[in-house]
Amino acid sequence: MAERAFEDPEREERRQRALAHVRQFGDPVLRTPSSPIEVFDDALREEAKRMVELMVEARGVGLAAPQIGRLRRLIVIEPDPEEPPVALVNPEVTWRSDEEEEGQEGCLSIGEIVVPVLRPVSIHVHARDVSGEPVEIDAEGFVARVIQHEVDHLDGILILDRTGAEERKEALRQLREQG
Ligand code: ZN
To answer: What pLDDT score was predicted for residue 179?
Structure first.
């Protein structure tokens, strides 16, 4: 999930350089479901570390492995800059609240587009950390939103699929103009 551009031109250039490594809308890899991870080795930890670096440089609050062309179930999130980033392997949303909330979402893979997305406010998540240890998370609000956005990527789902028909049409028009 993405935040806005930087005012500082030098920092903005670094953001653009990082974004060059992120697969963009239209790339079929973003539409392909990812496979579970079975081996928790140094390569996995390296990959998670690299994804965190890329996410931070690109000013994202989350990044999923398919966005860098890797079809495996790994996401990194940093919804709160005061807290350390978290890598989740094979994340699964096992419970969703009935209560839903609409929020604006951007995506590192979809240019500068921001669309409203309706999502459950609270979720329960089962995952593993990069060492294979089980992790359980109760998340709500923005953190829950970021996790759901990234887990969607593992299933080939994008925010354009989750927004209204009018918003999708407008976003696609903007993408054509930017492209
Ligand atoms: Zn995204």
So the answer is: 65
User: CA 44, CA 131: separation in Å to the nearest integer?
Assistant: 9
Helix-then-strand count for the chain, H and E: 5, 7
Please tell me the distance between residue 11's alpha carbon and the centre of ligand 1 in angstroms.
21
Q: 163, 113 in Cβ contact below 8 A?
A: no
pLDDT digits (tens, 9 = 90+) for 46-75: 999 999 999 999 999 999 999 999 999 999
Domains and CATH numbers, the chain: 9-178 (3.90.45.10)
What is the Cα–Cα distance from 148 to 55, expressed in whole angstroms? 17
Length of the chain: 179
- What is the sign, positive or negative, of the torsion defined by CA atoms of 40, 31, 52, 124? negative
Q: 106: which 2 tokens? A: 């951007």
> How many angstroms is it from 107 CA to the middle of ligand 1?
4
Only one residue has tokens 């992120």, namely 22
Point out the residues that are catalytic.
150
CA of 62 to the centre of ligand 1 (A): 7
Dihedral, CA of residue 48, residue 49, residue 51 and residue 52, to nearest 10: 120
- Rounded-to-integer distance, Cα 145 and Cα 103, Å: 8
